[in-house]
TrEMBL record:
Transmembrane segments annotated in the record for this chain: none
Signal peptide range: none
Protein kinase domain sequence ranges: 13-100
Coiled coil location: none
Record keyword ATP-binding present: yes
Name listed for the protein in its UniProt record: Pkinase_Tyr domain-containing protein
Pfam annotation, one family: PK_Tyr_Ser-Thr
A single GO molecular function term of this UniProt record: protein kinase activity
Binding-site residues for ATP, renumbered to this chain: 41
Length: 100
């Protein structure tokens, strides 16, 4: 995904669309240009991973499919931007999905 596409999907990373925040960054709900709703995680600038290392990890993570894991759909690695795009769990959280 391009940074522009993800910025548009989240309405400029609007705080109204923020659905979570953790040690690795903030997560926003966004609508991609194909209409799909996604959880868009903006990784913290403090993460010191190089682009090559991050892309290797993203490649591995994107191949993993398991009922207890949210699917990674894509990413944006452009300039200082490090953004991961996941399937969105409607009215739910990962912990709620795991507990049932």
């Amino acid at each position: 995904y391009s940074y522009k596409e993800l910025r548009i999907a989240t309405e400029g990373f609007n705080p109204v669309n923020k659905i979570g925040e953790g040690g690795f960054g903030s997560v926003y709900k966004g609508q991609l240009k194909d209409g799909k709703i996604a959880a868009i995680k903006v990784l913290s600038a403090q993460l010191k991973q190089g682009v090559k290392e991050l892309l290797t990890k993203i490649g591995v993570i994107s191949e993993i499919e398991h009922d207890n894991l949210v699917k990674l759909c894509g990413c944006c690695v452009k300039g200082n931007h490090r953004i991961l795009v996941y399937n969105y769990l409607e009215n739910n959280s990962l912990s709620q999905s795991l507990i049932g």
